[in-house]
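As agreed, record passed on underneath.
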Amino acid sequence: MVICVVDGQGGKIGSVIIGKLKERLKEHVEIIALGTNSLATQNMMKARANKGASGENAIVTTLRKADIVIGTINILMANSMLGEFTPRMAQAVAESEAVKYILPVTQSNLVVIGMQALSIPQMIEVLVEEVIKGIERCAR
C-alpha cells in the first residue's frame, strides 16, 4: 500500500502525520512525502517517510500510484498555499483514484460548514485513526 502525504511551505503538518503513521502502522506500508518545495519534503523525510520528492512534476507523477492521499484541504484547491500548489497539482489530486484523507485547515478564504472545532493535533489524531481503519478494511 502506498500512502502519499502532500504538504507545502515548511511541511510541518505533513511531518506530524508521517510521524504518527510510522508509530502506528507496523505492516508494510510505503509512505511517500510529497512537498511543494524541498524544505517541506526534507522536514517530512525527517519524520521517517520511506521516500520523498519535491515539486509539481513529482507530485503529479507520484500520485498516480497512490492508494491513499493525505493533506490539508489546500491540496484540493489550485493556487493555494500562497501559490505553491499549482492547478496541475490540484487536478492530479482530484483525478487520483486514491482514497483522500483531508484535514480542513487552510489559509485561504474558505469556510467549511459543519466542521468540528478541533485543534490541528486533534484533527491529526482523528485522521490517523481513519487511515488505519481504512487500511484494515482493505486488508480483509
Notes: The longest helix spans residues 120-139.
